[in-house]
Fold:
Amino acid sequence: MTRNQSRWIPLTAVGFGAMLAACGGSSTPASSSSAAGAPTATATAAPTATISIPTTVAASSSCPSGSTVTSALGTSALPNAVGIAPTAATSELPAGATGIVCEYHATTENVIIEVIQNIPSSYISAYSSHFPAGFKTVSGVGDQARSFDQALGGGKDNEGVVATQGTTLVVVDATDTPATISQIESLVSSLL
Structure:
C-alpha cells in the first residue's frame, strides 16, 4: 500500500485552504513597423500564472509527539508528525469548526490523526462512509464511535476509529502497524 492509498480519511472535511502563490506574467504591447509604411502588429503574449502547492505542510504544534503515538499503538519508532498537503478536493469545514491533521510516516507504518472541534456529531457519518471496509459500532469511546479493519494482504492491515464527544471529532487511521483496534480506541479516547 502506498502512502496516498492509506489516506482513507475524507480530507474534504478538513478545512485546510490551499496555500497558493501566483506569479504574474507580462504582455508585450503591439508594435508597428513597416517597410511599406503599413502598420503590422506583433503577437501579444498572454499573461501566465504559476501555482505552487507545497508537498509538505508543517504539522500543528497540537499534534501528539511521535513517541506518544508510538507508545499508544505499540509501533516501532514513529517520527514526529508532519501535516498533510491540501488536495484539490479540500473543502471548508462548517462555520466555527477548527481542526488539525497529523501524519506519522515511518518506512512502512503510517498513522494519521485528525482532531476537529466545534463540528456537529453527525459528521461521523461522513467519515465512516469513506472507510475502505464496512464499519462496526464501538461502545465505550466518546458519545459514539465506529471502527474498521481491512486486511491488505501479506499480514498487513489498515485499521481506524472515528469518534465524537460533544462537538469534537477524532479520527485515527493506522496502516501496517501492530496496533489493535483496542489500542486505537484508547488513543482516540485520550484525544477526545
About this structure: Strands lie at 22-23, 50-51, 98-105, 110-117, 136-138, 144-153, 156-165, 168-175.
